[in-house]
Amino acid sequence: MGIIQLARAVIEVEKRNGYLFLVETGQLGSVREVLAYANAMQEVIAKSGIDRAVIDARGEEGDPPPEVRAAMWEWLAAPDRGFAKVAFVLSSEMAVARVNMTALSRKAPVRAFDSVHAATRWLTRETRSGSTLAMPAVREEGSSSARAPRTDSTEAHAPTEPPPPMTRNPGFRPPTPGPEEAIKRARSSELREIIRDRSTTPPKGGKVA
Hints:
By secondary structure, the chain is of the alpha/beta class. It has helices at 31-48, 66-77, 93-106, 116-129, 179-200; strands at 2-5, 9-16, 19-26, 52-60, 85-89, 110-113.
């Protein structure tokens, strides 16, 4: 879309599918340059209607002064102006971590990455799916598809048919009773014989019915 020329920095602006792609080279050396940069981007946002951007800042030289960095964050974190979402591409892991920590502390819609691919994927994720978080698909109740059991649960190993009835081992023999048990059984047998004889023997002078 064009080039923004500052005193010691150049920003190339390109319009892509649903977002702006910026390439920064040089260095922002003063708060005045940050304001000029912000005003120029406000015009680009107003003309294009696009308020999301991937900013490739790997061509920046050195670290900007603290006041310049603070002014840049004031612009990026402002809720009523600037970009709605920004993904930076930075050249070192330390710079990525620093930007992400600052963005989280300021609750700014800004994240930093080490590649253009990762930055673009994060920037466009919400546009494609409608949300940055996707819920897992849930099968409706009453569906004809059966739920497969989990392999790490007892359900997966449960039998599908009842087990067969237990059968007695034909070679099994009950244990032989000991002497005391044998005496008890003999006495019990003799007692049953006496009772039976008395019930069948008629009294003297009587008849058996």
